[in-house]
Amino acid sequence: MTSLLPLPDREIGLAPIMMCASVLWFSASCDARNQTATPTSTFEQPGKSHSPRFIPYELLVKFKNGISRERIEFILKDSRIDIIAEIQRGRLYHVRILDDQSVESAITRLTSYQEVEYAEPNHRYETQK
Question: d(Cα 79, Cα 87) in Å, to the nearest integer?
Fold first, then answer.
């Protein structure tokens, strides 16, 4: 005959099972109430349309240390790009592409300059509600 665990030990043994069941129930109920919400993860749900992951015609461009303001302005003007905002004084810029070139081609053009540390799309981020 098998002996049953004393009551406190049985409760401790059930605690992880109850916690897992609660988490599964909670996540399922959140999904059920949130079916119309916009997905915010990088995993796409098939058949659902969503806004672009980055803002069209906008980039973030970071220049290497010690590059003069005149040189930065020349590089951006030569690349047909205008400054929206200077984020880190003399280093990081929020910029707008002035013509119909794609974000990818503007990045390629900018990164061809040795003074540019990096250029990347202005990614769109959403907080969960």
Answer: 19
Buried b (16+ CB within 10 A) or exposed e, 72-110: beebbeebebeeeeeeeeebebebebeeebebeebbebb
d(CA 67, CA 120): 19
Q: Per-residue pLDDT tens for 3-43?
A: 555 555 555 555 555 554 444 444 444 444 444 444 444 44
Q: Which residues contact 51 (CB under 8 A, 6 or more apart)?
A: 38, 124
Domain 54-123 CATH class label: alpha beta
Mean pLDDT for all residues in the chain: 74
